Every structure is written in C-alpha cells, then in structure tokens.
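Q: I'm a student working through a structural biology exercise. My instructor gave each of us a protein and asked us to get a predicted structure, then write a short paragraph describing it. Mine is Ribosomal RNA large subunit methyltransferase E. I'm not confident about reading structure output yet, so if you can add a plain explanation after the tokens, that would really help. Here is the sequence I was given:
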Amino acid sequence: MTVVDLGSAPGGWSQVAGSLVGSDGIMIASDILPMDSIPDVTFIQGDFTEESVFEQIMDVIQERPVDLVISDMAPNMSGMRDVDQPKSMYLVELALDMARQVLSPGGCFLTKVFQGEGFQPYMAEMRSSFNTVLTRKPSSSRARSRETYLLGKGFKG
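A: Happy to help. First, here is the predicted structure for Ribosomal RNA large subunit methyltransferase E. I'll explain a few features afterward.
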C-alpha cells in the first residue's frame, strides 16, 4: 500500500497507518509542524499549500498508485467563523485535488472538515469522485464542535 497523511503532526494517523503499511509499503506524512520519527514513515515538513512541499510529496510518491490519502489539516483557528471556515475549506479542497491526482481507482480519501459555508458543495464534489461518501464524527470530538470527517471510498479515477 501507499498512503499519504496530510496534516500529520503529532503523528497518530501516521503511526497507525505506518504500522499497517509496514516496510513493504510506502507511508508519506507531511505537516507544517515537526513530528517525531516513526518507523517506515517518510516525513516531509512544510506548508502543504506551497508548491515546493507538494512537489516533495509527489517526488516520494513517484508514479506509484496511492491507496489512501488522509487529511487532518486545519488552519490555526482564530475563533471567527467568517475567517476560519474559508481557510479550512481551502485546505480540504487542496487535499481533495491532490487525492484526485494520485489515488488509484478504488482508492480512499479521509478528510477532516468543519461544517459551515462550503460544506455541502464540497460533499457534492466528493460524491462526484467516489462511489461512497460517509460522514463520521469521532467520539473524541465535542458534541457542539463543527468538526466531522468525510470518508470517500471507491475512487472513480
């Protein structure tokens, strides 16, 4: 398997996925923040919105088909919804764009999204690219939080 984890710090998703992928697969993690080394995980530190960081990730992927893209990216929240929501949607749109570029047919995409302006059109975009789109709210997320995860399964390629 080949897995890409965007917004990987502190490393929880990468740790779990890296152990499942093992040394036979490729696990690529990237974050603007530093992350402790994890066995069998290639870490690229930098801002995913910058072309140079995107290209570093693509260099590691090479021409391999990617089975799973995980995005746990979120902007630094200011507490002002009118500012935070567009920044958050920009990150998830970039992550979906990358997933569409690298996923193999049948691949999966898991992303953290904040419900609000842009959420419904984004979900429609995901539905156009995946056979199934599921919404999940982890029990660790506060009930009043707008944070949710979307899981796209079966990339249409």
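A: Here are two points you could use in your paragraph. The chain has a mean pLDDT of 91. The CA atoms of residues 113 and 119 lie 8 Å apart. It's a good idea to check both against the output above yourself.
Q: Great, thank you!
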